[in-house]
Amino acid sequence: MIAALRTEFMKLRTVRGPWLLLAAGLLIVVAGISGLVISGGNLKSPATQSAAVAHLGIAAIVSLVFGILAVAGEYRSRTISDTFLSSPRRGRIVAAKLIVYAAIGAVVGVVGAALAVATASIWWGAKGADFDLGNADMWHTIIGGIVANALYAAIGVGLGALLRTLTAAIIVAVGWIAVVEGIVGQLIGTDLAKWLPFTAGRALALAAGGGDTGLLSRGAGGIVVAAYAAVFAAVAVFSTLKRDVT
Amino acid sequence: MATVEVRQLSKTFRSVRAVDDLSFSAPPGKVTGFLGPNGSGKTTTLRMVLGLVRPTGGDSLIDGKRYVDLPSPRRVVGAMLDASGFNLGRTGRDHLRVLATSAGIDRGRIDEILDEVDLTTAADRRVRGYSLGMKQRLGLAAALLGDPEILILDEPANGLDPAGMAWLRALLRDQAASGRTVIVSSHVLSEVGQTADHVVIVSGGRLRFDGSLAELDSEDGSLEAGFLRLTAAEVAA
């Protein structure tokens, strides 16, 4: 298993694409916070600090796409055959990918959190407002954002393993977030909609009291997203085990 | 030394019978040419031997074991399946480093094998800039990395220039001469004719011929005529 983990990390280390993608996610955090300030956010309100760092949760969408690359990217580059030739125990490979990609998702979350706090405190200072590092809700939002980045990366690994086609997996993921979940939510009603994966993710990573009603608590949102990640991880392993690699 | 044994192997994709009750074996010390027209089931057969495709029936054994049961498969079998199976953004050397790490092969072997396939100077360039022939050679390097007893190469001659072909033939002969088992598929008879000791011909997923080149030659007067007669049988049937 150690060899499988090292291999997956080395695969990532030797290409640029995934890192550029993750860098774009971090850019979203910085740009998003800057946008909030420039568009006239109320910097005197403690809730605005939370709203600023909540952009970390938006970066989790990029971590989701990053996770999709793990398996679907190997089908695209046709390196998946080589991967399974080295290690015919496919379950172990998918498990290694889940661990490595979720861990990197978490690291991206931590780096993004540092960037978010730094960016926000600079803006607050520049506008002559006090940036309160003791703001508990801000830190809860940050922790939620870090967890979201890790869990969405794992969900991406599962989705990519299930669909195997990179473009299809990305379209399904982004389409679900942008359009489908909203429609499904309206069809099933708020009571059930809060359990949907992206709505639960919003509960996990967005600022509390941001005017968003019909969400689970942050902790419950985290548990629900973790449950989705576990389901997708299981789907990833089982859909990979017996499939023909042609 | 290891024999590859294919035993009553069958594969049906939805309603298509890609491989149909196919049996043959490839002995050590010989180059086995695995021939057939495009779409005759060669690649599917090789992928079943390598545990990538699950047979509908039958099985395939390497040294008496299924591929998936080999403890360190890359040290036993080196395979080249797809000359486009690279991440184009990765350098040739990194491609081999990934494989060496995944298979527990010593890093020192990488320089050795890069030299052997004449890719040392291109090793630190991204595969995106490689010619088809260079990709073939990188694929061969990957197959040879674990110094395996068995080599399985699917259409390795695609994209090689005449000098590359001559080099490939010499390499295959060397490997067989040192007692290794070599299976090399092709849809072009002349590629294999000068190299193979033993020929297995398939068409429509079925075995059409299994024997020495001399037998094929004497029956029809020429390899080409034999190949065409055997593969045409499918059309007539």
Corresponding CATH architecture of one domain in chain B: 3-Layer(aba) Sandwich
Summed up, the domain count of chain A is 1
Mean pLDDT of chain A: 93
Largest interface: A-B, 27 and 36 residues
Round the Cα radius of gyration of chain A to an integer and report it.
19 Å
CATH superfamily of one domain in chain B: P-loop containing nucleotide triphosphate hydrolases
CATH class of one domain in chain B: Alpha Beta
Question: What's the shape of chain A?
Answer: globular
For the terminal residues of chain A, how far apart are their CA atoms?
Answer: 25 Å
Strand sequence of the main sheet of chain B, in spatial order?
A: 5-6-7-3-8-9
Class by helix and strand content of chain A?
Answer: mainly alpha
Tell me what portion of residues of chain B adopts beta-strand conformation.
25-35%
What's the order of the H and E elements of chain B? EEEHEHEHHHEHEHEEHH
Derived structural class of chain B = alpha/beta
Give the proportion of residues in helices of chain A.
over 70%
Which sheet architecture does the biggest sheet of chain A show? none
What would the principal axes of the Cα set say about the shape of chain B? Answer: globular
Structure characterization notes:
With about 250 residues, chain A is an all-alpha fold. Chain A has one domain. Chain A has eleven helices and no strands. The radius of gyration of chain A is 19 Å and the shape is globular. Chain B is about 40% helix and about 25% strand. In chain B, strand 1 (about 5-15) and strand 2 (about 15-25) form a beta hairpin. Chain B has helices spanning about 40-50, 75, 90-105, 110-115, 130-145, 160-175, 190-195, 215-220, 225-235; strands at about 5-15, 15-25, 30-35, 55-60, 75-80, 150-155, 180-185, 200-205, 205-210. The model of chain B has no long low-confidence stretch (mean pLDDT about 90). Chain B has nine helices and nine strands. Chains A and B meet through helix 1 and helix 5 of A and helix 1 and helix 3 of B.
